[in-house]
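sry for the spam today, last one i promise. C-alpha cells for design, 397 residues
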C-alpha cells in the first residue's frame, strides 16, 4: 500500500511538472488579461505574454484564441533570449475604428530586432476607412497612417496564412530584415483605398513571397531601395497597381540611393490591375541601380500597363523634378519571359528610360499581349536590348 501511495505521488508530480512546462511553452493571451470582446484594449496583455516568451530558453507558442482582440498599438521588441517564438492566431486582431485612437500615428503592430519569430494564421482588420476618407478631402491634415504588420531589423521570420483587411497604410512591411518567408497571404482592400500596398520590402535580403492573393488600392508588392535576393512566386494581383520596383530617386532619399538587385518574379496572374510589372524612378540626379531582375511566366487579364519602365515617375504631378531632367538610376539586365494575356490600353509595352542613363541589357522573349480594340503597341525610349521569337506587340528594342 505504501509503495502504491509513493508511486501515485510520483505520477502526480510528473503530471504537474509536465503541465507546468506545457503552460510555459504555450501562452494563451487571455491568461494575461486579453479580452476577446473587440472593444477592450489588449495591448498590455499581449506584451506581457511576449515578455515571457522573449525571455524563455525554450520554444514558445503564443496563442490568440478565436474571437476579436482590440490592439491600439504594440511593439514586440528584441533582441530576445528565445529565437523560436510562434504566434498561433485563431482569432482576429482589430485596430481602433479611428486613426486618432492609435497609440502612435504611424505604428500599429511592429516587431523590432527579433529573430526566429513566426506568425501563423489569423485575421488583421486595419479599419482604414476613416483615414481613407480623410485623405480623399483636399487640404485635410491627415496622418500617413500605420502599416498593419511591420518587421524591422529582424531575421529568420515566417508569416504564414494570414489575412489582412482594410489596412490604414501598407498591409505588410519588411524593412531592414534578413531571411523572411511570406506564404499563403491574403490581402484585401478596396481599389480606391490610398497607399495600401499589399507587401512592401525595403533594405532587406533573402525574402521569399510564395502564394499570395492581393487585392488592394496601391502596389500589390512594392520593392524599395536596398532590396536584394528577393523571390516572388505564385501571386495573384488585382485590383492594384501591380508588382513595382521603386519608386527610387525621390527627393529626400539622398544623392546615393541603395540599389535593387537579384529579383525574380514568376508564375503570377494580374487581373484588372493598373500595372503588371513596373519599374519606376524619379527624374532626379540621385544615383543608384536596378539590375539582375527576371519577370517570368505571367498572365495579364485586362491590365492597363502590362510591362512598364517609367523613369519620369511623378504621381499626381506633385513635386516633380524640373522639366527636361533625367533619372540618375541605372537600369540593366532586366528580363521579361513568357508574358501573355490582354492589355487594357493600346501600349502594352512601355519602356520610358532615362536619357542620361539608358536602360541596358533589356531582354524579351515569348511576349504575347493583345489589345481588344486593335493591335497592341510597344514604345521604347532610351532602351537597349534584344528580343527573341515572335513578339506581340512587335518589339521596339
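last one done:
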Amino acid at each position: 500500500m505504501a509503495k502504491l501511495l509513493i508511486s501515485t505521488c510520483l505520477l502526480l508530480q510528473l503530471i504537474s511538472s509536465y503541465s507546468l512546462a506545457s503552460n510555459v511553452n504555450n501562452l494563451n493571451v487571455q491568461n494575461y488579461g486579453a479580452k476577446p470582446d473587440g472593444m477592450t484594449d489588449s495591448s498590455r496583455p499581449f506584451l506581457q505574454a511576449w515578455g515571457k516568451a522573449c525571455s524563455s530558453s525554450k520554444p514558445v507558442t503564443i496563442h490568440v484564441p478565436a474571437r476579436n482582440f482590440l490592439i491600439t498599438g504594440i511593439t514586440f521588441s528584441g533582441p530576445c533570449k528565445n529565437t523560436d517564438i510562434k504566434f498561433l492566431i485563431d482569432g482576429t486582431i482589430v485596430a481602433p475604428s479611428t486613426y486618432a485612437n492609435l497609440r502612435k500615428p504611424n505604428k500599429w503592430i511592429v516587431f523590432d530586432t527579433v529573430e526566429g519569430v513566426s506568425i501563423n494564421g489569423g485575421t488583421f482588420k486595419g479599419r482604414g476607412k476613416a483615414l481613407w476618407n480623410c485623405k480623399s478631402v483636399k487640404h485635410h491634415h491627415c496622418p500617413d497612417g500605420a502599416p498593419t504588420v511591420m518587421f524591422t531589423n529582424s531575421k529568420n521570420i515566417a508569416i504564414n496564412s494570414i489575412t489582412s483587411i482594410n489596412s490604414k497604410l501598407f498591409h505588410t512591411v519588411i524593412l531592414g530584415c534578413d531571411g523572411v518567408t511570406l506564404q499563403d497571404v491574403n490581402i484585401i482592400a478596396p481599389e480606391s483605398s490610398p497607399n495600401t500596398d499589399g507587401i512592401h520590402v525595403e533594405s532587406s535580403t533573402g525574402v521569399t513571397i510564395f502564394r499570395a492573393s492581393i487585392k488592394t488600392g496601391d502596389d500589390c508588392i512594392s520593392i524599395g531601395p536596398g532590396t536584394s535576393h528577393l523571390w516572388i512566386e505564385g501571386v495573384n494581383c488585382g485590383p492594384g497597381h501591380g508588382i513595382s520596383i521603386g519608386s527610387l530617386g525621390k527627393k529626400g532619399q539622398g544623392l546615393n540611393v541603395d540599389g535593387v538587385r537579384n529579383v525574380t518574379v514568376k508564375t503570377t496572374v494580374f487581373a484588372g490591375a493598373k500595372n503588371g510589372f513596373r519599374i519606376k524612378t524619379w527624374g532626379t540626379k540621385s544615383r543608384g541601380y536596378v539590375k539582375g531582375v527576371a519577370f517570368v511566366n505571367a498572365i495579364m487579364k485586362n491590365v492597363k500597363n502590362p510591362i512598364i519602365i517609367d523613369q519620369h515617375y511623378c504621381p499626381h504631378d506633385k513635386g516633380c523634378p524640373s522639366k527636361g531632367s533625367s533619372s540618375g538610376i541605372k537600369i540593366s539586365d532586366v528580363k521579361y519571359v513568357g508574358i501573355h494575356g490582354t492589355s487594357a490600353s493600346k501600349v502594352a509595352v512601355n519602356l520610358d528610360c532615362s536619357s542620361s542613363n539608358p536602360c541596358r541589357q533589356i531582354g524579351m522573349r515569348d511576349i504575347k499581349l493583345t489589345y481588344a480594340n486593335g493591335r497592341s503597341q510597344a514604345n521604347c525610349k532610351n532602351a537597349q536590348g534584344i528580343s527573341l521569337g515572335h513578339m506581340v506587340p512587335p518589339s521596339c528594342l
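The radius of gyration is 24 Å. ok im logging off now
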